[in-house]
Amino acid sequence: MTKKFPFHYGFIVAACCTLVTMFNIGLVLSCAGIFFVPISEELGEPVGKVAMYLSFNLLASSIMLSFSGKLMEKFGARRMMTLSSIVMGATLICMSKFSALWQFYAAGAVLGVTFTFLMYLSFPTIIPRWFNKKVGLMIGIAAAGSSIGGALFNPICGMLINNYGWRTTYIILGAVILLIISPLIGIFLRNKPADVGLKPYGESNISARQNKNDGYEYRAVLKMPLFYGLFMFGFLMSTVASVFHFVPKYAATLNFSLEEAAMVASAAMIGSTIGKVGLGWINDKSLTAGVFATLGLGIFGLALMFSGTGLNILTGGGFLFGWAYAGVFVQTPLLVRAVFGNKSYSQIYSNISIGLTISAAIAMAMWGNLAEIGGYEAVFIFAIVLLGICAAIGLRALQAARF
Questions:
Q1: Whole-angstrom distance, CA of residue 306 vs CA of residue 322
Q2: How many C-beta atoms surround the C-beta of residue 146 within 10 A?
Q3: pLDDT tens per residue, range 236-245
Q4: Distances (CA, A) of 393 to 234, 254, 335, 336, 381
Q5: Would you give the distance in Å from CA 262 to the centre of its chain?
Q6: Can you say how many angstroms the Cα of residue 127 is from the centroid of all Cα atoms in its chain?
């Protein structure tokens, strides 16, 4: 295996993870909303009821994450991710035949199970096995795949729906995942460097204590207050990230046009994409700098948007807020690994990821109600406070970091 490639095989594994986030997550999750209206019109159901399919998705992910890390360790990332990708593709093809809401809800639950392996546990758990150097950068690039995929595939899916209908579009998406992405994962993904006779990339530059056996036992971690602190870190980061969905509405209250509001939202998404890669690179230099970049820039971005003094300020604030959005899937796993080590990392991170799904399920309603009661000023102030709490937790975690 090592003779076939002029570079470390870990980069092939990282490419597989990026492929998964770009296609499996970018196509299925990032493009989910574009199907709601045509499905609603054909079934004669309100869009809100169709969109509840995502609630079942999040619920299933939350339940599955409680033991998916153990399954990943037992059966291997390659097997679980390939199987999840196949199930995802087959489910999309089945969705092309649905005629009742309960069928979409059931499919949402099935897809939620696949997301636990393809999104929450893929790059955050696999890349640290393969890299002792450039871990953050590789995680950031893989995390950026979902944003890039969403940006690329939303207009493509819209075109397909307009020309061929939502049912045929589901078949096309399912076929792409079944016939292209799933085989590539099965062929090229490997569980750990030892599978191909290698050591992690950059191992010679890392002290001997940072190996796969270093770290706390899973049961011991469950008794540590810092575990619950990092659970809250991920929960609150994901909660604040949900403010992104209200940015266009906020811009509209400031009398900006629909196009201008969309520009602010786009700036936040661009900031998130660049932030994922940038935060990964910064964390490779210093985890402390990574925490300050994630939360400092996020707080500054929210403050700029809160000021509402002009379109340029609002757009710049949206871009910087995107860095906090990026921190959900970059800063969280890097802190968990630094504090608890590699030994039971998959199981530990899978449980902390439950906070990400729970917050996503409740944050939309929370922010919406807060905006109605106290206005968007209350939303931004509360979001800034939550990021401040995250900063305190992150810095405390770094004080305890041993790995």
A1: 15
A2: 26
A3: 999 999 888 7
A4: 10, 34, 10, 12, 19
A5: 22
A6: 15
Q: Does the global pTM surpass 0.85?
A: yes
Please answer whether residues 271 and 318 qualify as being in contact, where contact means their C-beta atoms are separated by less than 8 angstroms: yes
Specify the residue for token string 């049912």.
167
pLDDT less than 70: residues of the chain:
1-5, 204-213
Tokens, residue 125? 């758990």
User: CA end-to-end span of the chain, whole Å?
Assistant: 30
Say what the pLDDT of residue 47 is.
Answer: 86
Beta bridge partners of 215: 341
Is residue 19 packed enough to be buried (19+ CB in 10 Å), middle (13-18) or exposed (0-12)? buried
Burial 34-58 (b: 16+ CB within 10 A, else e): bbbebbbeeeebeeeebbbbbbbbb
Which amino acid would we find at residue 18?
Answer: T
Nearest CA to 325 out of 247, 212, 213 is that of 247
Cα separations in angstroms, 44 against 41, 95, 171, 205: 5, 17, 22, 61
297: Cα separation from own chain's centroid: 19
* CA dihedral angle for residue 265, residue 53, residue 103, residue 97, rounded to 10 degrees: 0
Helix or strand (DSSP H, E) at 155: helix 135-164
Closest CA to 126 of 182, 184, 200: 200
| Distances, alpha carbon 284 to alpha carbons 1, 206, 270, in Å | 28, 12, 22
Report pLDDT for 1: 44
Query: What pLDDT, on a 0 to 100 scale, did the predictor assign at position 77?
Result: 93
Three-class secondary structure of residue 46 per DSSP:
coil
The pLDDT assigned to 2 comes to 46
SS3 content of the chain, % helix, strand, coil (to 5): 85, 0, 15
Summarised one tens digit per residue, pLDDT across range 53-110 is: 888 998 999 999 988 988 998 899 999 999 999 999 999 999 999 999 999 999 999 9
Measure the CA–CA gap between 141 and 118, rounded to whole angstroms.
Answer: 15
